[in-house]
Amino acid sequence: MSREKEITIYDIAKQLDLSAATVSRGLKDHPAINKHTKKKIADLAAKLGYRSNNFASNLRKQRTNTIGVMVHELKSQFITSVLAGIEKVTTEANYDLIIAHSSETYKKEAANALNLFHKRVDGVIASLAFDTENLAHFEPFERKGIPVIFFDRVFEESDGTKVVINNFKAGYEATSHLIEQGCKRIAHITASLKRNVYSERLRGYKLALAEHGLKFNEKLVFLNDLSEEASRNNTKKILALHPLPDGIFVTNDFCAAVCIQTLKEAGIRIPEDIAIVGFNNDVISKIIEPKLTTINYPGLEIGEIVARNLIDHLQGNSDITLTNTIIIKSELIVRASSLKKKK
Q1: Domain locations along the chain
Q2: pLDDT for the residue numbered 55
Q3: pLDDT digits (tens, 9 = 90+) for 290-299
Q4: Which residue intervals of 28-76 are DSSP H helices?
Q5: How far apart, in whole angstroms, are the C-alpha atoms of residue 323 and residue 258?
Q6: Superfamily for the 167-297+332-338 domain
Q7: At residue 141, what are phi and psi to the nearest 5 degrees?
Q8: pLDDT value at position 59?
Q9: Are 142 and 315 in contact (CB under 8 A)?
Q10: Cα dist. 202→13, 196, 210, 338 in Å?
């Protein structure tokens, strides 16, 4: 099946016996073209299926009005809320988005970066995959002066602009809350410690234990790929411990929900036998029974802040090279899953 020829302004000009320049101005609603002519041009353009070639005209201006967004997964409610925040701001500023996801692999992340570079995006917003070891695949953007902002999963020691929460403080608060509820043997289910978000939450967990005179036991730390199967398997490992933990701090609400379900199936009472705290304040935290104590991680606001900083830079209203880390406030939300001490 042969492809239909792309309609150009020259085809419209020929049929209406106008110059290409007049058609071009008419399509752009130029005040020098009268209303009647504009309507004729617009009607024929619609009838012929004309598409404006923004890409070509933007290339002449050395920009595409497109922003690349690189995320590590698309199934997370946190990521979808960040994307909603980004989309809200970019739409208002007339920017298009190209969304790429790495499926948690560096290899795909590097291929996505190269693809976005060749698509000539004006800027990039990125959150890193589990196994990304360095930022070499972002160097082509840097060399061309194309701004890159990282959010959530970042390299904290890198110079670029980052939008994060204080994961160390959040991990400390989640663990301290369990200790205040009387927990003395607290397990921690977390993910790849190569990523700042998980290593920092673990650091907060350790400090809370130390400050309350509880000994850190690495056998109570379980690494997870955040999948349902891994979360279930880790919970089964916890159930095999003697003595059982009396509290679990889980680095992700979905994992925490799987953990609660698995514990309940084994006859464990939540929170009487084991108190649970999750992370992110996903919708599932309000649906699971008992409702889940968690850390609120405001994805929508993070998306808006990342996008606004990038667009302000692109429009010359600010310079993100002067900004290093933007820290967004997070907070502990206490629900029934952790309340051993009844009010």
Answers
A1: 9-52, 65-165+299-328, 167-297+332-338
A2: 53
A3: 999 999 999 9
A4: 35-48, 54-60
A5: 39
A6: Response regulator (3.40.50.2300)
A7: -65, -45
A8: 52
A9: no
A10: 66, 10, 12, 19
pLDDT of residue 159: 81
Counting as low any pLDDT under 50, the low residues of the chain are 1-2
CATH topology of domain 9-52: 434 Repressor (Amino-terminal Domain) (1.10.260)
**For residues 165 and 55, what is the distance between their CA atoms, to the nearest angstrom?**
36
| First and final C-alpha spacing in the chain | 71
Domains 9-52 and 167-297+332-338 share a fold: no
191 Cβ contact list (under 8 Å, min separation 6): 130, 198, 223, 224, 225, 226, 251, 252
Structure-token pair, residue 272:
């009487």
Do the Cβ atoms of 260 and 230 come closer than 8 Å?
A: no
**Architecture of the domain made up of 65-165+299-328:** 3-Layer(aba) Sandwich (3.40)
For residue 232, the surrounding DSSP H or E stretch is: helix 228-239
- Structure-block tokens of residue 31: 């005040």
Tokens 């036998």 label which residue?
273
Prediction pTM value:
0.81
Q: Per-residue pLDDT tens for 7-44?
A: 889 999 999 999 988 998 998 888 889 999 999 999 99
Q: How far is CA 217 from CA 123, 167, 209, 213, 263, in A?
A: 44, 21, 10, 13, 21
φ and ψ at residue 250, rounded to 5 degrees: -110, 135
Please give the full DSSP string across 179-230, using - where no structure is assigned. HHTT--SEEEEE--TTSHHHHHHHHHHHHHHHHTTPPP-GGGEEE--S-HHH
What does the DSSP 8-state code read for residue 331? E
How wide is the angle at C-alpha 188 spanned by C-alphas 182 and 194, nearest 5°?
150
Q: How far apart are CA 306 and CA 182, in angstroms?
A: 39
